[in-house]
């Protein structure tokens, strides 16, 4: 008997049912949105609530003239979604976009323009800016082109790391600026690949989490101009103006000209994970690159202006972002867009978490007013795919909504703690009346996060926006003349102090004081409850010449100068040892606020406050010295005692030490006044030196001391 013959046939939907513009097509799958490969072709799906007609425009990669324009038949539309499958495409050599026509009697707020070719908001890759800084062809009718990306990367079983939040030390950095300077010595400066070569440096510092400034596709030539005073090209260097929310920045990829930016970025994540370093992305959902009424039409405006933006009744753009428009995040369609985007990055790129720029905007409704229960924030908090992702809010916006400590958090969100930054800066420069505030910030800001724990507080003293740490101790005022805006831009209130001389100096006393102040800042930051965040380059005293708003400088002003690693090795060693000290003492990383009670049976409260006299803190307006003793279980399970004194007074003090239990002695970990200590003034944990005088310690002018108890 002959065995039956099994004929393998293609699925019935892999055949065209129509011929349009020379291509076989058929009704497409309406979900997911975007362009996806299907058997024999590419499925395109795009949403517009009010479009009367939508055409798919196809190009050979890089060519000006379309190779085809395919009107999507009306019968291929379901609701507001137009979907078509096109067969026979050379999808590796394909750019695509859409032409959208609106109704004859358009709404006052509609911005349909059939003369424009629109990018796909869901495009997984984009072209048009493949090489950073290369002048684009301004005559190209389609500047930002949508492309397909292919899921063929070998992850080698990589997964998000899920490091407990209490163990994180975050390092905020700019992908291009980190290796662009010739001193970096990498093979592909300014790229994802270049950053991979510097992972050993990151690991050597002890940071276990990088927060990358925007890597979603943006246009560095947005608002580009020549500074008439210097002739320098000023560009959109920071990238806080997104063009493609699903697409990694091609100009940051050494392989960008070959369309391999997706794989190159994935490799960066994979290599960072292999080194034990998590990856957070700084994401910008508060506005887009389309700007105000005078801005370009890229995608959202021409697809569905009323849906994607918060508009006035007259059809103008609300500007709570300070950049011309405000994304309508709590509209159901836009909410789903943001969710889809973050799910994509978390699942396809293994991203560990996100920091949300001007996140207070995500709390605003369609009329711009804050919502009691913002749907987007709730959805992000409870999304099953994002469950393990770190979520960090910059809890304010340019419209005056300030929510530090009050951001709708659903038990999930952390916040950039701007009050921590301001308090520590004021204390370090010797402002009166700051001791009480400093004590509150050191223990995780329980006034702000009493019910949320210390991990809600992302503690930072500097970030990309403002002075570097070196400039914070070197300048009283901003010096932004190089931005070409007559020094009008940037914050005027910097909480800085120049230590007696404005800017660069060769005065040895001033330089010593500046170094000591930077060490004081790091020591406070890395011993405070909460999650510390370091701004890239601060560990080697990088300067921007007093510029506190270097958003437009792709130049040595903004780049990491790698010669500083050796030149300022004393500060770098100090920071390394402070990070190691934090890792060695779990009581500094507790997710719970200390209570002032003996909760672990040591005979001492878990936190106590001290002044020049032990157990007697001076909370007066003129006080500038604070001691704090923290106790709790150590890494080995035994009781741990860490005593810290921060002195912002211009005079030194002999500070009485609290007595230890019998059998323990105080050992010195750090003294920012003592320039003879190894490790830049902070000794490698485990090698702390016993102090001769167990009754008191000298704390020099504007300096800090940290002691730890060890067996006698």
Structural notes for this entry:
By secondary structure, the protein is an alpha/beta fold. The protein has 3 domains: 12-147, Immunoglobulins (Immunoglobulin-like); 165-586, Glycosidases (TIM Barrel), CATH 3.20.20; 594-711, Immunoglobulin-like (Sandwich), CATH 2.60.40. It is built from 14 helices and 31 strands. The strands form 8 sheets. The protein has an 8-stranded parallel beta barrel. Strands 1, 2, 3, 4, 7 and 8 form a 6-stranded antiparallel β-sheet that branches. A 6-stranded antiparallel β-sheet has the order 24-25-26-31-28-29, with helices on one face. Strand 19 (353-356), helix 7 (375-382) and strand 20 form a beta-alpha-beta unit. The chain is elongated and about 90 Å long. The relative contact order is 0.08. Residues 6-10 have low confidence and may be disordered. This is Glycogen operon protein. Residues 172-582 form the Glycosyl hydrolase family 13 catalytic domain. It comes from Krasilnikovia cinnamomea.
């Amino acid at each position: 008997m002959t065995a039956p013959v099994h004929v393998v046939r293609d699925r019935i939907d892999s055949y065209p049912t129509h011929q349009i513009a020379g291509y076989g097509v058929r009704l497409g799958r309406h979900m997911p949105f975007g362009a996806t490969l299907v058997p024999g072709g590419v499925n395109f799906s795009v949403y517009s609530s009010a479009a009367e007609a939508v055409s798919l425009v196809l190009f050979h990669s890089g060519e000006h003239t379309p190779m085809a324009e395919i009107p999507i038949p009306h019968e291929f539309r379901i609701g507001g979604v137009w979907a078509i499958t096109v067969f026979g495409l050379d999808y590796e050599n394909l750019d695509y976009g859409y032409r959208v026509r609106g109704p004859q009697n358009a709404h006052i707020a509609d911005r349909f323009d059939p003369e424009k070719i629109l990018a796909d908001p869901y495009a997984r890759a984009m072209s048009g800016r493949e090489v950073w800084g290369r002048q684009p062809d301004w005559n190209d009718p389609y500047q930002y082109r949508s492309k397909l990306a292919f899921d063929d990367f070998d992850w080698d079983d990589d997964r998000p790391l899920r490091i407990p939040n209490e163990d994180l030390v975050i390092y905020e950095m700019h992908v291009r600026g980190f290796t662009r300077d010739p001193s970096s010595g990498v093979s592909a400066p300014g790229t994802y690949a270049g950053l991979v070569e510097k992972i050993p440096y990151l690991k050597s510092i002890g940071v276990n989490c990088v927060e990358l400034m925007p890597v979603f596709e943006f246009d560095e030539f947005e608002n580009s101009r020549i500074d008439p005073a210097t002739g320098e090209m000023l560009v959109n260097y920071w990238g806080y103006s997104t063009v493609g929310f699903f697409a990694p920045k091609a100009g940051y990829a050494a392989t960008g000209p070959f369309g391999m930016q997706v794989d190159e970025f994935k490799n960066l994540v994979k290599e960072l994970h292999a080194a034990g370093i998590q990856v957070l992305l700084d994401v910008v959902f508060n506005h887009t690159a389309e700007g105000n009424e005078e801005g370009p039409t890229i995608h959202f405006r021409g697809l569905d202006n009323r849906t994607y933006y918060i508009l006035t009744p007259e059809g103008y753009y609300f500007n709570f972002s300070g950049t011309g428009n405000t994304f309508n995040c709590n509209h159901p369609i836009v909410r789903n867009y943001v969710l889809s985007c973050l799910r994509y990055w978390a699942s396809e790129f293994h991203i560990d978490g996100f920091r949300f720029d001007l996140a207070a905007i995500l709390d605003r409704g369609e009329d711009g007013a804050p919502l009691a229960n913002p749907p987007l924030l709730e959805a992000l908090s409870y999304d099953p795919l994002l469950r393990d992702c770190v979520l960090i809010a910059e809890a304010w916006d340019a419209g005056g909504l300030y929510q530090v400590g009050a951001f709708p958090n659903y038990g999930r969100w952390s916040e950039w703690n701007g009050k921590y930054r301001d308090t520590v800066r004021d204390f370090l420069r010797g402002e009166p009346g700051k001791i009480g505030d400093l004590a509150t910030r050191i223990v995780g800001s329980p006034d702000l996060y009493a019910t949320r724990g210390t991990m809600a507080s992302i503690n930072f003293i500097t970030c990309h926006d403002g002075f570097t740490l070196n400039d914070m101790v070197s300048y009283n005022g901003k010096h932004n003349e190089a931005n070409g805006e007559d020094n009008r831009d940037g914050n005027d209130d910097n909480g800085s102090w120049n230590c007696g001389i404005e800017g660069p100096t060769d005065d040895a006393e001033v330089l010593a004081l500046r170094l000591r102040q930077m060490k004081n800042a790091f020591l406070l930051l890395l011993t405070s409850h909460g999650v510390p965040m370091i701004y890239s380059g601060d560990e080697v005293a990088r300067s921007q010449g007093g510029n506190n708003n270097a958003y437009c400088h792709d130049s040595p002003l903004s780049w990491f100068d790698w010669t500083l690693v050796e030149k300022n090795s004393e500060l770098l060693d100090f920071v390394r040892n402070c990070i190691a000290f934090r890792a060695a003492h779990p009581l500094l990383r507790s997710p719970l606020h200390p209570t002032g009670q003996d909760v672990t049976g040591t005979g001492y409260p878990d936190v106590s406050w001290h002044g020049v006299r032990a157990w007697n803190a001076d909370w007066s307006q003129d006080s500038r010295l604070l001691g704090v003793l923290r106790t709790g279980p150590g890494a080995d399970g035994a009781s741990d005692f860490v005593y810290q004194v921060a002195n912002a007074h211009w005079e030194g003090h002999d500070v009485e030490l609290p007595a230890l239990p019998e059998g323990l002695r105080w050992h010195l970990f750090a003294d920012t006044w003592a320039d003879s200590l190894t490790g830049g003034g902070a000794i490698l944990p485990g090698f702390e030196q016993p102090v001769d005088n167990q009754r008191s310690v000298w704390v020099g002018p504007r300096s800090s001391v940290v002691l730890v108890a060890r067996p006698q």
